[in-house]
Amino acid sequence: MKKDSKDEKVIASEEEISKGNSVHSKKISGAQTELLITHSSPQTEILVVMHQMTHQKIQANEKWGATPMIQENIDIVYDIIEANDFPEKDTLLSIVTRWKDGNFNRVDKDHNAIWKLQGGTIGKAYGIMSEEEERWFVIKNFKEDVLTAWLEENK
What we know:
The chain has seven helices and four strands; from the N terminus they run E-E-H-H-E-H-H-H-E-H-H. The protein has helices at 14-18, 43-54, 71-83, 89-100, 107-117, 131-141, 144-153; strands at residues 2-4, 9-11, 58-59, 127-128.
């Protein structure tokens, strides 16, 4: 792994990625498979879940917590946001609508928008993991049923 000194980006080699040794796909603390939100959850809790969902897909030097970015979870988050009058409803709805449509081509920017709303200072995203890095992240951080759902969605 090498760092780009200008941006402090960690870049994994193809060999590290293929063996599951990319820093982006490592096991992280706080990974959970359950969505711990309901229709009565405040916006702050929705932000936490959405932020943790992005960790499955983004490149960042620091990540804490992860929640599976699978269709079932995306649909639940969408329904909760849609049913509430959160201060940042429009922003959150535009992000989760992209995800609902299977569009993750700006998930790093989505992460940073959510991270900013939370007052983030450490762990800014600077890219999107390759599919192989994401596969390893899912294997290392979630239960087998999540891996099965992810593989099914990514055929």
